[in-house]
Write a structure and sequence with these properties.
With about 200 residues, this protein is of the alpha+beta class. The chain contains five helices and five strands.
Amino acid sequence: MFNEYRKYITATDLQEFWYCPRFIYYMYVTRIRQYEEKRFKVQIGREVHKAKALEKEYLRKSLGVIKQEKEVYLSDDNLGICGIIDEVLHLEDGSMTILEYKYAENKHKFRTQFYQAVYYSILVDSNYKTNINSCYFVYSRSGTKPFKYEIKPKHKEFVKDCINEFKKIYYEGYYPKRTKYLRQCLDCTYNKICDKY
């Protein structure tokens, strides 16, 4: 059962973690706020999600969809995670998958977006007693075609490891290593206060 006094990790939390684990340290341990809501793409992305949530119901028959659930809130008490999935799809063969809308172009598979979908697949697995092995994205700047990506057990294990490290930072005040993608440091809210090692 959902516990309002417990910190449930969200997909947004993990996206920040994947950007750089120190984001989590500065946000939750030092309580220094960041102001990502001012970023243009974040604002546009939220508007895309709102618009999709208000669209008329439809089924993606080309994917073999027989039932579609939109804006589905799920949680997992054992892992301490929760999230709202754009679409949970039930397929003709009895399997399930998820579909996410992104304000981006389909140039390549975005690492953080893919792992966000893996995170959601873990939530669906837990709540629907299934085993999702694929996900779909619709990149709103490239049209409405859904793009499919495979989800392997190793992807789910990676996300669960990240959840555990997030908890270590959040509950124990652990100071993690910074991202290995150093170009991201240039645009980071915490660039001026973060140790350069």
